[in-house]
Amino acid sequence: MSEQADARAYDPAPQSHAGRVIVVTGAGDGIGQAVALALAHQGATVGLLGRTQRKLERTYDRIVKDGGPKPALLPFNLETAAAPEYDALRAALEREFGRVDGLAHVAGILGMLSPIEHYDVPTWCKVLHVNLTAPFILTQTLLPLLRRSDDACVLFTSSTIACRGRAYWGAYAASKFGVEGLMQVLAHEVADTTRIRVNSVNPGPVRTAMRLQAFPAEDRSKLPEPSAVVAPFLYLLGPASRGVNGQAFDCQ
């Protein structure tokens, strides 16, 4: 099988991610929550990073109820966070764990669907910041902790729209093109000098709030739940994908 097929068909052995410390952004709901729950089920200690404490606590409670390792609550606003908050996050993770084995960038916002001619400039800036600039800053901030791992991975969440631009997708499309470029550049930089690998994953159409915002008239019953697309995330954030670097994966 190809690596793409391996990732989609990945069926991890019990506790495949035991002992790993993995930070997941957007862990309060949607795909981020599904990935966090799946990682914890496989034995990982998950740093639950997101904007809304109440949502993070729901994910936390589900992990604890399922018997997973106690996760770390990391309330963090990617839209507004400044340098001191990033530094405090790194210090907290270093103090608690000493290292980070994985960083999964799942959080993102859609913005608006609009022609470029009429696209609201502040919304454009916000989407580019949350979807591209903040993941860059967070990755840069946590690289020293990722370097301490024997087997570290950074995983960016991409989109079908990053393969070919489409009318009216504006800042979201531009941000996802940027994410793919960031992934490729970082993967090339760390390839021969670290034990870090960097990849991206495209979940495809999934039953999430963002999908509903983009396609309000769509029949949601035909879309997979977020839990149905987590296999490639687990594959790329675990030991099964050692040596895989600089590649883009599709979940569907």
Low-pLDDT ranges: none
Report the C-alpha radius of gyration, rounded: 17 Å
The ordered string of helix (H) and strand (E) elements is HEHEHEHEHEHEHHE
Structural class: alpha/beta
Count the DSSP helices.
8
Let me know the largest β-sheet.
Answer: 7 strands, parallel
Strand content: 5-15%
Number of DSSP strand runs: 7
Helix content: 40-55%
> What does the average pLDDT come to?
94
Question: What do you see in this structure?
Answer:
This protein has about 250 residues and is of the alpha/beta class. About 40% of the residues lie in helices and about 15% in strands. It has 8 helices and 7 strands, in the order H-E-H-E-H-E-H-E-H-E-H-E-H-H-E. Strands 3-2-1-4-5-6-7 form a 7-stranded parallel β-sheet, with helices on both faces. It is globular. It starts with a helix and ends with a strand.
Give a quick set of tags describing it.
single chain, 252 residues, alpha/beta, seven-stranded parallel β-sheet, 8 helices, 7 strands, 41% helix, 14% strand
